[in-house]
Design goal:
By secondary structure, this protein is mostly beta strands. It contains one helix and 39 strands.
């Protein structure tokens, strides 16, 4: 009996060309029968042809892939874990040269330069997606665990204090994504623009997801500075960042920033001058002809602070801000400033002191003023929290950042900040869903 292809499977044929029993069942549409055997089609691999081949990623395994790890080598090809590059920027540049690949970075700590030039940052590239959180063996994106495999981008390039750290750890770009990193130790204390955005400085509409911005500092936007951009920031933590305006995030003029499932905790505004914006967690500070626009959905602002009594959580000036399904609690000093030009619309949210106390705010349905009952030393919710099942599920946004990697960005956001299902019964207020 001689094996041969028939209907894309392998069958046995006798000497008279009569087809007999099946010899091999090609497993799926990613396999084909060729030369009397099943073979995976281009860019597919695995026993059942259900994994991307080395060097490829995406739901259809049709996007090229570049690998980076600490013990890699920039003279390598960068197209497999065994041939990984050593530096993140080399990976970004190669991905761009190849036409817009994704970049996977193994756990570890990476710095923008081996030298002491504070002006050097990790420069994101348009059309390139940068992912951290890998153990260094993964073949599919869903296999990574960015919470376990911590991948750090650090601006601690100097020798002693933060005075010689990078001005900006990361610089954004239009149509670029950064996902799965801890971004820390940026210190934007130079002349403009090097006094903005210690963690990330962006005038491009980047996508940020599954990241943590911690212990960054600046004059404006300790964690992140945004201007003339429309970034989407999802499932991201801003913690212990500081600035003279916008400790966690500074959202400037001509912006349309979207925040989904984010937590702002222990950020601060220090050394604030009288005419500067506060906003320990976030400052929305636009201009008459270019307001700052922010949409805040299922976020938690807690334990943020601002000197001079101005907006521990959010400062609003010439801005249009919409808040849905969110929690603002235990932010010392005034939690949210009144509206100084522009608007603020709040619904289905837990506001410390009540929505009605915010001068100029429009208070919609479903708002409460009740202790959310956080789990000790976190901002997740206990079982009998008044924020459990009291949001509006209809206000949960589409999965615009594709958090589950299935290519479907029109489905409802699937996860909360901890990677658990976003909706259990009715959606909760805040970044975390009680399970």
């Amino acid at each position: 009996m001689i094996p041969a292809c028939h209907d894309n499977d392998v069958y046995y044929y006798d000497s008279c060309d009569n087809r007999g029993d099946m010899a091999e069942d090609c497993p799926n549409q990613n396999a084909t029968c060729a030369d009397a055997q099943c073979e995976c089609t281009a860019h597919w691999a695995g026993e059942d042809c259900d994994e991307c081949a080395t060097g490829w990623t995406g739901t259809d395994c049709n996007r090229c892939l570049v690998y980076v790890k600490e013990d890699g080598n920039n003279s390598f090809s960068g197209r497999s874990w065994a041939q990984a590059l050593q530096t993140v920027q080399a990976g970004l540049n190669l991905a761009s040269d190849l036409g817009g690949c994704a970049v996977w970075v193994e756990q570890g700590t990476y710095k923008p330069t081996n030298g002491t030039n504070r002006e050097i940052s990790f420069q994101l590239v348009s059309g390139v997606d940068l992912y951290g959180g890998f153990a260094g063996t993964e073949t599919m994106l869903y296999q990574r665990n960015h919470r376990v495999n911590v991948t750090t981008l650090s601006g601690d390039i100097g020798t002693s204090s933060t005075d010689d750290n990078s001005y900006h750890v990361v610089r954004g770009a239009d149509n670029a994504r950064i996902d799965g990193f801890t971004i820390t130790q940026g210190n934007a204390d130079g002349e403009s623009p090097d006094n903005h955005g210690g963690g990330m400085y962006t005038v491009g509409s980047s996508t940020v997801s599954n990241c943590t911005f911690s212990e960054n500092s600046a004059d404006s936007g300790g964690g992140m500075y945004i201007e003339s951009a429309s970034p989407i920031i999802a499932n991201t933590i801003f913690e212990s960042n500081s600035a003279t305006g916008g400790g966690g995030v500074f959202n400037g003029g001509d912006t349309s920033t979207t925040l989904i499932n984010c937590a702002f905790i222990y950020n601060s505004v220090n050394n604030r001058l009288p005419m500067e914006p506060g906003g320990g967690g976030m400052a929305n500070n636009g201009a008459f002809d270019s307001p700052a626009v922010a949409t805040i959905i299922n976020c938690t602002f807690a334990y943020n602070s601002s000197e001079e009594g101005d907006a521990g959580a959010i400062h609003n000036n010439l801005s249009n801000v919409m808040v849905r399904n969110s929690i603002f609690w235990s932010n010392p000093t005034q939690g949210i400033t009144g509206i100084h030009g522009g608007s603020m619309n709040i619904s289905y949210s837990d506001i410390d002191g009540g929505c009605d106390a915010i001068s100029g705010a429009t208070c919609g349905d479903g708002n409460i003023n009740t202790d959310p009952l956080f789990v000790t030393q976190t901002v997740s919710l206990i079982e009998n929290s008044p924020c459990v099942n009291t949001g509006s599920s209809s206000l949960v946004p589409p999965d615009v950042t594709d958090l589950d990697g299935d290519g479907n960005t029109s489905e409802s956001t699937p996860f909360d900040l901890d990677g658990n299902p976003r909706v259990v019964d009715t959606v909760d207020m805040g970044a975390y869903e009680y399970q």
